[in-house]
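Hi R.,

Here's the chain you asked about this morning:
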Amino acid sequence: MGSHQKITEYERRRLENIKHNSEMLAALKIKSKVVDLAAVSAKRERNLKLKYPQCKTYKRCPVKKPKIETPVVLRQSLRTRGVPPDASTAGGAIDDLDKKLVSTRKSKSAPMKSPWEQGPLTMRNICTCDDELDQKLIEVISACSRKFISGEADAHPCDNLENSENFEAFKAINRLHCSIDAEALQLKSENIARVVPGKIMSLRIFPTLDMQMIAVGNKFGDIGFWNVNGKQEDGDGIFLYHPHTAPVSGFVINPFSISKMYSSCYDGSIRLMDVEKEVFGMVYSSEYSIYSISQSTHDVKSLYFGEGIGGINMWDVRAGKSSFLCDLHEYRINTIDFNSDNEYIMATSSTDGTACIWDLRQINADKPAPLKTVTHKRAVASAYFSPSGKCLTTTSADDKVSISSGANYEDTCMVYHNNQTGRCFSPFRGIWGWDDSSIFISNTNMKRGVDVISVEAERIVATLESDLLSAIPRWFDAHPYNAGMLAGGTSGGQVYVWTLP
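And the predicted structure, written out as C-alpha cells:
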C-alpha cells in the first residue's frame, strides 16, 4: 500500500466530525467551566470543614488474635507400621474426639457459664479502647471523688455525706431549682460526639460540677463515657466498655459517691462500676429482664428496679438481698421516679397504658393500690416528677404528654405531641428542666430538634433547632447542678449537649 494513498470518504467525514465537535466544545467553554466548578467545590469543602469540624467519636483498640497452628497428624495403618493386628480394636478404633463426645453426653454437670455471669469484671479486660485511656478515665473520676472527700468539691461538701450530720439538711437541696430561658440554649460543634456504636438506650450526666461526664448505654451492652471537656490526645474524652450482653436499660449514680455507678440490663443483671477497685461487680442477677432502675435521693442504700412483667424489686445494697418484691403493673415498668419533696412517694410508668403514683408505706404485696392513676390509650414510656415534686408529666405513644398538678395531682391536662417513632426507634420520654415551667421532648415534625412544652401555656412554645443536628435525640438528661446543660442521645450513638451562651 503506497504512502500517498488518499483517505477514504468515511475517514474524511470522521475527521470533519471530530473537528466540528472540537470547535463546538471550544465555543461552549466546557473546559473552563470544569475548572471553575472544581475551584468552587474545593472552596465549599474548606468552608464546611471550618464550620463543622470532624465529630468526636469513640476509638476501638484492634485486638490481635494469636494464630493457632494445628499440627498435621499423619495417620498410618498397623500394616504400614509393621505392627500385628489387635483383637481389641476389631470393632473399630475410637479416637479422642469420640471420647469427648461420649463423656459430654453422659455428663450431668451444668453447662459452663459465660464470662459475664461468673462475677466481677475488671475494667481493663472489658475496655475496648487503649489501656492508657482506661487509666485516664479512672484518674479523672478518682480525682473528682477525692475532691468530695477532702471537701474541695463544688457540688457537695464531702463524698460520704450520707454518714454525716449534714445529710438531712442536704436532702432539701439535692437538686438545683432555677428558671432559665429555654430558647437561649445553644448547640456547639465541640459539644457533639459519637460515644457508642448503635442505638443509645440510656443516658445519665454525672451529678457533679467538677467534671462534665456523661454515661450512655447502647443496645449491645456497651457503656460509653464522654468527658465533654476531654482533650484530643485523651481520645477526645471518650471511653468505651462492654460489661453487659444486652441493652443497657438505665444508670444510677450515687451523688454522694460518684466513683460508683450502677447499670441495669435486659439480660437481668445489675452491675456496680467501682472506679476505686477498677471493676464492674455483679450486684444482682435474674432470669427476668430489668427494664428500669432508680434510686431515691432520700435513701441511697436501696435500689428500685422494674423486673419482668410489671414487677418492682427493692434491693438492699448493704444487706445484699431483696427487701420488697411486688407486681404493680400488668406489663413491664418503663420508668421509676421519686418525689423530691416526699420520700415515700414514687411514680411508675408502664406499657399497660398507665402511670401510677404510689405511697411506699401503703403498698400491699397482694393488692397494691395507687394514689393516682393517669390513663393513656397506648404504652406510657415515662413518668417523672418535677424538680419541686408538685407536678408529674407522662409521655405516651398515643401522642399525648400529660401534666398532673394539685395537692393530690388531681388536675391533669393532655398536651398533644407527635410521639410516633416507628419500630426501629426508641420511644420519646419528656423530661423536666431546672424548674416546673418547661418540659423537653424530641421533635419529629421534620425539624430534628427539641420541643419545649410550657406548663402554663399547655402547649409547645419553642423548638431548639440547629444545623449541627444530624439525627433526632431521643434520650435526655438535665444536669442536676448546672442549669442550662442538657444532653440528648440518638439512635446512632451520638450525644448532643446544649448549653447557655
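Helices lie at 9-28, 30-51, 78-81, 96-106, 123-126, 131-150, 167-171.

Let me know if you need anything else.
M.
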